[in-house]
Design goal:
It is a single chain. The chain is an alpha+beta fold. The chain has a single domain, classed as Endonuclease/exonuclease/phosphatase (Deoxyribonuclease I, Chain A). The chain contains five helices and 20 strands. 44% of the residues are buried.
Length: 360
């Protein structure tokens, strides 16, 4: 296995407790190791990296502001600093062992993914990625990073989200991958970045419902082949667990007292009920970034399952800054308006761990 060089960062974490007979999957007292010991699990992470653009103008996309002559004065130095910041987050979230699988959103193209995985110290992890350019007007897409020695890719596909009565509407595709882990269990992974709330939550809800319908149809196709399939749905949904698109259309439940192997369960629902979130807007936290799993990953069958105490919003101090306009803290992002601050993202990462025999 290739070596992996890390830069030490002091980190903290927080988790959550939940009710029902699945108590323990959340852990409010979990601490992160600062040693170089290897994890004995399989980490699945999602991160909206916020505007990971290269410095070149794409005349087919609305990316002018992220160019050297654009309104944000985006240049090689800032691009490089953004890459290194994302690298630092991945290393810290992985507890010195890079996460096996990472879903990303707001990446412009394959070039920025190549630069992230090959020109930063992440090159030692040997990540490969799945990506293609989507119809999104700004050119921001979803992608999947994976460590091929831990996840053997078998299949990939992309699902378009289209609006019949609005042909001008363009948004990100939903990425699907299928692969095999070291313990020979098959995982089905969906990476999402649903349409934004720009224009108002109610006025744009129908667009996220469209995305939920597309995703639900794709998941049903997997269940038709294997009703006990191990499915992981991750992403920035621009809706919270209780919203209609997720709770009703997608059908992601939050009651763990009784689980069905072929059901869908939102592991992050209780965070929302307790007022925790992954991004902050006008002083209020929103839980847009979530991971949803099929019931077969909740310990009701042999093989891979979600490890108890592992459901985490990753919020160490270095990812936060004081919120002077409201109260408390907020994510440390790259820009405040058009003022460059050199931060990380306006979203916090989330992750879960899987456990099973022969994962390492």
């Amino acid at each position: 296995m290739r070596s992996f060089r890390i830069i030490p960062i002091t980190i903290l974490s927080a988790g959550l407790l939940t009710a029902g007979n699945f108590t323990g999957i959340f852990d409010s007292s979990r601490e992160f190791s600062t040693s170089s010991g290897k994890r004995e699990d399989y980490r699945i992470m999602f991160y909206n990296v916020e505007n990971l653009f290269d410095i070149y103008n794409n005349p087919e996309k609305e990316d002018d502001e992220f160019t050297p002559g654009g309104s944000r004065n985006w240049n090689r130095f800032r691009f490089r600093e953004k890459l290194m910041n994302i690298y630092r987050v991945i290393v810290a979230a992985g507890e010195w062992e890079p996460p096996e699988i990472i879903g990303l959103s707001e990446v412009e193209n394959s070039y920025v993914l190549e630069q992230l995985t090959l020109s930063t110290p992440l090159s030692g992890a040997g990540y490969e990625f799945v990506h293609r350019n989507s119809p999104d007007r700004r050119g921001i897409d979803v992608a999947l990073l994976y460590r091929p020695e831990k996840f053997r890719l078998l299949k990939k596909d992309f699902y378009s989200v289209e609006c019949e009565f609005d042909t001008l509407f363009k948004t990100r595709e939903i990425l699907y991958t299928k692969g095999v882990t070291l313990c020979s269990d098959t995982l089905h992974l969906f990476v999402n970045h649903w349409p934004s709330r720009w224009g108002g939550q109610a006025a744009t809800e129908h667009r996220r419902i469209m995305a939920a319908n597309v995703l639900r149809s794709a998941i049903d196709s997997v269940f038709e082949t294997n009703r006990f399939a191990r499915i992981i749905v991750m992403g920035d949904f621009n809706d919270e667990p209780h919203n209609k698109s997720i709770s009703e259309v997608l059908g992601a439940g939050s009651d763990f007292s009784e689980t069905c192997l072929s059901g869908l369960y939102n592991l992050f629902a209780d965070f929302g009920r307790q007022g925790r979130g992954t991004l902050k807007f006008r002083g209020e936290w929103y839980l847009f970034d979530q991971i949803i799993v099929s019931g077969s990953l909740l310990g009701g069958a042999e093989g891979l399952s979600v490890r108890q105490g592992s459901v985490t919003i990753f919020d160490p101090p270095f990812l936060l800054v004081r919120d002077d306009s409201y109260f408390g803290y907020k994510p440390f992002r790259s820009y405040e308006g058009f003022r460059y601050t050199g931060g990380y993202s306006d979203h916090l990462p989330v992750y879960i761990d899987l456990q099973g025999e022969d994962l390492n």
